[in-house]
Amino acid sequence: MEILDGKKAAQAIKDKLKIDVAQLAAEGKKIPHLAAILVGNNGASETYVAAKVKSCEEVGFKSTLIRFEADISPVKLLEKVQELNNDPDVDGILVQLPLPKHIKESDVINALDPDKDVDGFHPVNVGKMVQGLPAFVPATPHGIMLLLEHYKVETKGKHAVVVGRSNIVGRPMSILLSQNSNPGNCTVTVCHSRTHNLKELCLQADMIVAALGKPEFVTADMVKEGAVVIDVGITRIEDTNKKSGFRLKGDVQYETVAPKCSWITPVPGGVGPMTIAALLRNTFTSCAQKN
Amino acid sequence: MEILDGKKAAQAIKDKLKIDVAQLAAEGKKIPHLAAILVGNNGASETYVAAKVKSCEEVGFKSTLIRFEADISPVKLLEKVQELNNDPDVDGILVQLPLPKHIKESDVINALDPDKDVDGFHPVNVGKMVQGLPAFVPATPHGIMLLLEHYKVETKGKHAVVVGRSNIVGRPMSILLSQNSNPGNCTVTVCHSRTHNLKELCLQADMIVAALGKPEFVTADMVKEGAVVIDVGITRIEDTNKKSGFRLKGDVQYETVAPKCSWITPVPGGVGPMTIAALLRNTFTSCAQKN
């Protein structure tokens, strides 16, 4: 069994970006600039945005964090999005989700300039991704693809079972894995809450992508010997022994599943770090298209 | 075994549209107007466009057929698209594919106003469809969904195997069938040219959607007793006994497969007529959004 080490792979991507950014700077060209919008004080969101901003600094990107109170009016938020759309210095705009209930998320996402939508949530980017055209791919699925690429995991002709059909992970993951690309070219089965014979299907899988958000849902009896297992789950479980008060649990019961796998992602340190690396890559790409 | 009769279902949809259009007219409201662009003289394209225009007449839509020679410049074609985009009387614009090689199809499709893209090929419509938002869904997959709906075929929790991953049929079909909707909520497996164990996978399927364009590819030994089989293939096979010089063959070996099925679409008379019905529905929807 080998570990798909997201920390290492993400670091390799960041190291490369750092060099590329330094080169841009040396050539007197524009440096990538990510603008992040954070509304309210959700604990997880604070952590994620802080990590993204920190990663920008690491690789030499410019970053701007724009904070709003939870009760900001939708109009004000949309005005800010418009302002960032029109700002030629900003390459990527990130609106940290979830937004407070009184703001319709799709309104905000649809207001983003698709060319700055580095989270890949705008319908234009989703559509282009589906059509196999150049597009910003959402950070988590993009990060998983980069991880498979980094470790040269063979995917062609493999049967991948994706558990979960969310717009953010399961759906794009299933599309990317089944496309005529490398990584890709998998036969892909999408499973979800209405799937009857999930265990049976998982047992057929050469690769399982668990993205349903149920801690330790995938157990050893569901996994074929030699399978590749990608664990997208990051549920916070209360843990008074931890300074943070919680620990992270994946959707896979790691201890029992790992011994059966050819490759597996740990939680934390698997998919998580890759999502930020993917976001940085998207932002760099956006900037490069202007340079 | 029961037939999913596309002619009957399409007629039912057209009958309903005819009543709805008559009602619009009676209320002095705008009547749906489809503009079709045909470039060159491809035989199949001529037939398809003629059928679409005829169907518009049948239900009382206004239609405009715009013809260009095969050597039209891309700029001229894009100018016409722009003109139709700006014409408030036009509700739907259809660019018959394929286009001559010197014109980049994606340039033309991306130039369409997504709100008039009744073929559902613009990335915005593809993206919205994936996200489960209201969107124009491409005619063939939309037609299949309408057919399943018409015959009240139960799909929830069923395992659907989609053979083919094209942007026009296989890919959108796999997405629609796996969405949390009715019809929908299938566990969906997408198979393609790189799939190893296609027969084995098909044998597991409660529903097979054959959309690979290989005549009689799906044979009885690949189909489970009681399966629903949707045949999207329409390959023209030379036949000197026919006035047209050809007959149409599906991707399914109908004679041997049909006896095993709970439901099956014939070719012709299955999916084909539904694509036009779906196009008309999309055009009506576009018009209704303005009325």
Largest sheet of chain A: 6 strands, parallel
The geometry of chain A reads as globular
| CATH class type of the largest domain in chain A | Alpha Beta
| CATH topology descriptor of the largest domain in chain A | Rossmann fold
Q: Oligomeric status of the shown chains?
A: homodimer
Termini separation of chain A comes to: 43 Å
* Structural domain tally of chain A: 2
Show unreliable segments of chain A. Answer: none
Percent range for β-strand residues of chain A: 15-25%
The value of Rg of chain A in angstroms is 19 Å
* Major β-sheet strand ordering of chain A: 1-11-8-7-5-6
Mean pLDDT value of chain A = 96
| Helix-strand topology string of chain A | EHEHEHEHHHEHEHEEEEHEH
- Output the structural class of chain A: alpha/beta
What does this structure look like?
The structure is a homodimer. By secondary structure, chain A is of the alpha/beta class. Chain A folds into two domains: about 30-115, Rossmann fold, CATH 3.40.50.10860; about 140-270, 3-Layer(aba) Sandwich (Rossmann fold). The first copy, chain A, contains ten helices and eleven strands. The first copy, chain A, has helices spanning about 5-25, 45-60, 75-85, 105-110, 125-130, 140-150, 170-180, 200-205, 255, 270-290, and strands at about 1-5, 35-40, 60-70, 90-95, 160-165, 185-190, 205-210, 230, 235-240, 245-250, 265. In chain A, helix 1 (about 5-25) packs parallel to helix 10 (about 270-290) and helix 6 packs across helix 7. The termini of chain A are far apart. The model of chain A has no long low-confidence stretch (mean pLDDT about 95). The interface of A and B includes residues 124, 125, 128, 135 and 189 of A.
